């Protein structure tokens, strides 16, 4: 493809973007001559260039559109069908351009349909029966004459924009004869030479040939953006401000620019990155040598210049977010027509700049979210009237800088999220049980819309409602280290808040060490650092071997970096630093051995061979020259647990953890229940110990409650034999789970002991996990999870018990996977029992556990899982129990083995969704069979 | 490398151009890499291990400000990693636009060899070796295997296909 054509393509698509936007504005404000002349001029330019390059199809289309617009200018009323027709023509032109770009030639085809419609529209209103005047209007000489005439006719009316329009259009025909729009630009610029300021780009490329004066002008504008594939921005900026000003000169930029190939910029960026690294190395050396051989001052200068250069180059990568918004007015306009709604799109902060790489990534999610707002958010005019709102709905886009990140808000004043519908849908889809949903706050409920395939739309429209999208939006945003939050009020509207880093190339990172290896953790994810050691205030505690840190009364899951990185087998690390990390709503602590300092690092992408490792988002070279891996907090968070699980779920996890048999030392709270029986509960589950005056216990609907910290807290007796006291002091164990608290009434609190918890499981009583020998005495271990539903029932508005999807035995050797899967399975309504080994599982089955499903890890040590399954299949009782095998890598060999052992289904260990759907399927078939 | 492929075996000697190879040794075996593919040869100073990575990847290296993925040729050939500490050598290669460093025991001289004299791989050679080798050159008292650079660095694709 020759350069001229290439240039034409880039330029024309920029023009078209502008025309799109302007067209929508024009429709709303048909009397704005300035907008019309701008559109007219742009289309005219396109037509002219097409003619010059010999592209007849494009030329004919542009010509027909221009004719119709000429009619508008002559006073024909602007109608929605007419605008739609012109927009359709623009779309056709874009299609043809796309083909042109791919194949280098104009595609075959005819546009008679559009041209006929355009002509008809142009001739319909005004009685200009023959074709001649209209084409003449736009043909070279014709326009000129027309302009001249007009000016002659209305000499008194010469306003600035009139003058300018005439001025701009006059040379148009010449353009056609000579070479496209170069002349235009020269003219435009000479109009406003004083307004031009040198921009950052110019500074970085001072030696570039761009500013070389061209004939007749001392400024040569090529295009406002350095990015070849993104549309121009400066027209957009003007669009923002042109209501008061003359829009006719939108294209005449206020900044002086030059078009630079993106590759050149990227290369420059890489070189600067290298320079920064080298500088850092030099500084490091200088720090180590105290002697000054006269190089320190120049080094300082070098350092400063490098920093400035880095800044400058970074700025060349910056683009106003408006360029990502450019398509939106058109999108909203089309949608509002399609959906018969009145929607206004308000855009604020379009000039907020961010890295073009980031911009590319968020472009589509933004469009998607605006479409969603228009479709789901904004109601129909009738509905809006009924609820006392103005008929016209508003979608507001707002972007602004905040710290090192950029915040984008997409808000609408529509109906807001229907929490009831989301709750219902979540429970229908088995994402969470009803009991759990009841306990969740609206904010947590709102998060469900980010689940894949989640849609509450009653009907699937052509616009949205198919349930694809929001999860993709979230994934895309998280990919670049951003977060997305949702806030909604029923009847008032919904606001999405997206926070993304300004740039992906250079980030501040905390350098930490684990087992003599250094890692970088992006600073944005780090909320605090806590030093831990067994003797200090902050100590890592373990629940069934899973490390937990108690931080300000909250349990923080701890991920030892050395463990997830498989740097050491030693699981007992207890000293070091906990990097408290926040990813979206999820908080967890990363346990590291040492923390060094924060450093601005240049992010280099991972080699394609290593991209699959979720834990790393890239690598970098530190000041001392060492290569260091950048930990991806999102990847870690995925390992910690699904993000759909809020803190409450995680507390739930810890309840479950206590149930699983543990063979490590556990802190137990020992107390007495009815008939002096000794009971115990893992201390980590207990939030507080209280002793309350029994007279303060009140009875509400037959249940005892007490006012506790400004709330009503239900009280349950720890066993049937113990009556809640009515006088004296009543000792309580307070368990809290998110906002919900429960008091467990006990006879007496005995002691806190640390002991090896070896629980004999008792299946027949759900209030007990089992019994254990604690300090030489038989003690019943209380299952806290048993009491919570009892309490919740008194609270919940419905009496429905949580949906029981069946009991399930989970056999998995890894604590990590067990802890991860249990809450997921529980939240889907399964009663879960766990076993760490095949032997344990066999023992549990022999004690009378009758699971409806067995989910087993197929990679238990020594193929014991297959032996276990084989014995099950041989036993008549378990022959038909569905068994789902989990494997890290389902390869054909494993599948064949699974078939041989009659394993019902095999799913990947990491694919929780797959597991749930497999279970749901089996559940369905079980019911059918029953 | 291409040259090797395109010159028919029947071509006369006069027309054949000698191919230059950089020789390396791994576990005493001499191997040759076409010189056109080799960007540089360097001593490995400090290597960052990548946890959870494939066993073939030894780590990441800083080669003059560029992060280079170090691939162990021993591991690619199914050999035990060398436990000795000391100077480690690497050959800088490029594959699919990315920089790699192939870790070898030692780097030898550059040899000019006639592609016509290359022999096909012995039929009973280890499968792993056959996959990475284009053929064998007979030198004085030594055999040099011609490494297929692309095959050496294509291990991920291989695994996916399996």
TrEMBL record, chain A:
It comes from Microvirga makkahensis. Residues 807-924 form the Response regulatory domain. This is Chemotaxis protein CheA. It catalyses: ATP + protein L-histidine = ADP + protein N-phospho-L-histidine. One of its GO terms (molecular function) is phosphorelay sensor kinase activity. Pfam families: CheW (PF01584), H-kinase_dim (PF02895), HATPase_c (PF02518), Hpt (PF01627), Response_reg (PF00072). Residues 300-504 form the Histidine kinase domain. Residues 207-252 are annotated as: Disordered. Residues 506-642, 665-793 form the CheW-like domain.
TrEMBL record, chain B:
PANTHER family: CHEMOTAXIS PROTEIN CHEW, CHEMOTAXIS SENSOR HISTIDINE KINASE-RELATED. Residues 18-158 form the CheW-like domain. This is Chemotaxis protein CheW. Pfam families: CheW (PF01584). PROSITE patterns: CHEW. It comes from Microvirga makkahensis. GO terms for cellular component: cytosol. One of its GO terms (biological process) is chemotaxis. It comes from the Bacteria.
């Amino acid at each position: 493809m020759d350069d001229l054509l290439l240039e034409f393509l880039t330029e024309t698509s920029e023009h078209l973007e502008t025309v799109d936007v302007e067209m929508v504005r024009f429709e709303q404000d048909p009397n704005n001559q300035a907008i019309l002349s701008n559109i007219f001029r742009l289309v005219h330019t396109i037509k002219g260039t097409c003619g010059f390059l010999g592209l007849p199809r494009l030329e004919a289309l542009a010509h027909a559109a221009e004719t119709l617009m000429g009619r508008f200018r002559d006073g024909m009323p602007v109608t929605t069908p007419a605008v739609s027709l012109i927009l359709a023509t623009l779309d056709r032109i874009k299609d043809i351009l796309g083909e042109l770009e791919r194949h280098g030639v104009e595609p075959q085809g005819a546009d008679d349909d559009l041209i006929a419609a355009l002509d008809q529209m142009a001739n319909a209103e005004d009685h200009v029966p023959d074709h001649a005047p209209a084409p003449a209007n736009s043909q070279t000489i014709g326009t000129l004459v027309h302009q001249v005439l007009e000016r002659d006719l209305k000499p008194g009316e010469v306003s600035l924009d009139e003058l300018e329009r005439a001025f701009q259009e006059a040379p148009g025909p010449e353009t056609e004869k000579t070479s496209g729009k170069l002349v235009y630009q020269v003219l435009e610029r000479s109009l406003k030479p004083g307004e031009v300021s040198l921009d950052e780009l110019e500074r970085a490329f001072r030696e570039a040939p761009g500013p070389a004066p061209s004939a007749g002008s001392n400024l040569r504008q090529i295009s406002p953006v350095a990015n070849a594939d993104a549309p121009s921005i400066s027209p957009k900026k003007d669009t923002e401000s042109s209501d008061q000003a003359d829009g006719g000169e939108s294209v005449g930029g206020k900044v002086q620019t030059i078009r630079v190939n993106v590759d050149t910029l990227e290369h420059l960026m890489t070189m600067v990155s290298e320079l920064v690294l080298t500088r850092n190395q030099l500084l490091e050396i200088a720090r180590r040598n105290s002697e000054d051989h006269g190089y320190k001052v120049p080094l300082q200068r070098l350092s400063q210049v490098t920093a400035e250069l880095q800044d400058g180059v970074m700025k060349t990568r910056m683009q106003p977010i408006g360029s990502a918004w450019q398509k939106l007015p058109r999108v909203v306009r089309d949608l509002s027509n399609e959906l018969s709604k009145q929607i206004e799109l308000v855009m604020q902060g379009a000039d907020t700049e961010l890295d073009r790489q980031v911009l590319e990534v968020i472009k589509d999610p933004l469009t998607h979210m605006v479409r969603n707002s228009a479709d789901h958010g904004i109601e129909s005019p009738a509905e809006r009237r009924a609820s006392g709102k103005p008929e016209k709905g508003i979608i507001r886009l707002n972007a602004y800088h905040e710290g090192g990140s950029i915040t984008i808000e997409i808000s609408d004043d529509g109906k807001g999220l229907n929490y009831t519908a989301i709750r219902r849908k979540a429970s229908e889809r088995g994402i969470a049980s009803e009991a759990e949903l009841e306990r969740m706050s609206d904010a947590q409920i709102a998060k469900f819309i980010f689940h894949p395939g989640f849609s509450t739309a009653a009907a699937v429209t052509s616009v949205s409602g198919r349930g694809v999208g929001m999860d993709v939006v979230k994934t895309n945003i998280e990919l670049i280290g951003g977060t997305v939050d949702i806030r909604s009020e029923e009847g008032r509207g919904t606001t999405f808040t997206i926070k993304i880093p300004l740039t992906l190339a250079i980030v501040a990172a905390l350098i930490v060490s684990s087992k003599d290896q250094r890692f970088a953790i992006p600073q944005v994810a780090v909320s605090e650092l806590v030093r831990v050691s067994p003797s200090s205030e902050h100590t890592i505690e373990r629940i069934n071997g899973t490390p937990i840190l108690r931080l300000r009364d909250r349990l923080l899951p701890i991920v030892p970096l050395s463990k997830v990185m498989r740097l050491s087998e030693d699981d007992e690390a207890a000293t070091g630093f906990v990097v408290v990390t926040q990813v979206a709503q999820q908080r967890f602590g990363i346990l590291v051995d040492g923390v060094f300092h924060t450093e601005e690092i240049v992010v280099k992408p991972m080699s394609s061979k290593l991209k699959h490792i979720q834990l790393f988002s890239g690598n970098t070279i530190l000041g001392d020259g060492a290569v260091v891996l950048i930990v991806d907090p999102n990847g870690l968070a995925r390992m910690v647990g699904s993000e759909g699980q809020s803190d409450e779920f995680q507390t739930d996890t810890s309840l479950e953890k206590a149930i699983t048999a543990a063979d490590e030392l556990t802190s137990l709270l020992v107390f007495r229940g009815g008939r002096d029986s000794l009971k115990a509960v893992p201390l980590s589950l207990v939030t507080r110990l209280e002793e309350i005056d029994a007279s303060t216990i009140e009875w509400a609907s037959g249940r005892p409650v007490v006012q506790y910290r400004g709330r009503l807290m239900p009280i349950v007796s720890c066993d049937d034999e113990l009556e809640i006291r009515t006088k004296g002091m009543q000792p309580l164990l307070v368990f809290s789970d998110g906002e919900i608290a429960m008091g467990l009434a006990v006879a007496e609190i005995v002691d806190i002991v640390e002991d090896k918890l070896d629980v004999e499981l008792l299946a027949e009583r759900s209030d007990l996990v089992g019994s254990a020998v604690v300090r030489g005495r038989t003690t019943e271990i209380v299952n806290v999870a048993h009491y919570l539903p009892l309490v919740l029932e008194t609270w919940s508005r419905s009496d429905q018990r949580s949906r029981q999807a069946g009991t399930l035995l989970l056999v998995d050797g890894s604590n990590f996977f067990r802890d991860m899967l249990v809450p997921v399975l529980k939240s889907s309504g399964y009663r879960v029992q766990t076993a760490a080994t095949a032997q344990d599982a066999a023992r549990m089955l022999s004690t009378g556990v009758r699971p409806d499903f067995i989910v087993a890890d197929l990679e238990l040590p020594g193929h014991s899982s297959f032996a276990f399954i084989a014995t099950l299949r041989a036993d008549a009782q378990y022959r038909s129990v569905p068994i789902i095998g989990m494997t890290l890598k389902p390869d054909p060999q494993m599948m064949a083995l699974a078939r041989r052992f009659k394993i019902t289904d095999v799913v990947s260990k990491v694919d929780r969704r797959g597991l749930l759907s497999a279970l749901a399927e089996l559940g369905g078939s079980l019911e059918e069979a029953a | 490398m291409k040259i090797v492929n395109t010159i028919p075996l029947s071509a006369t000697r006069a027309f054949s151009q000698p191919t230059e190879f950089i020789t390396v040794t791994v576990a005493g075996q001499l191997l040759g890499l076409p010189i056109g593919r080799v960007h540089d040869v360097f001593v490995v100073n400090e290597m960052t291990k990548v946890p959870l990575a494939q066993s073939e990847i030894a780590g990441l290296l800083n080669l003059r400000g560029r992060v280079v993925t170090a691939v162990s040729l021993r591991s690619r050939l199914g050999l035990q990693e060398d436990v000795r500490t000391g100077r480690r050598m690497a050959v800088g290669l490029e594959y699919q636009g990315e920089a790699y460093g192939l870790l070898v025991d030692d780097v030898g001289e550059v040899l000019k060899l006639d592609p016509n004299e290359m022999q096909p791989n012995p039929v009973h050679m280890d499968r792993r070796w056959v996959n990475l080798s284009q053929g064998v050159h007979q030198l004085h008292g030594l055999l040099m295997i011609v490494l297929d650079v692309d095959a050496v660095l294509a291990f991920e694709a291989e695994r996916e296909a399996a």
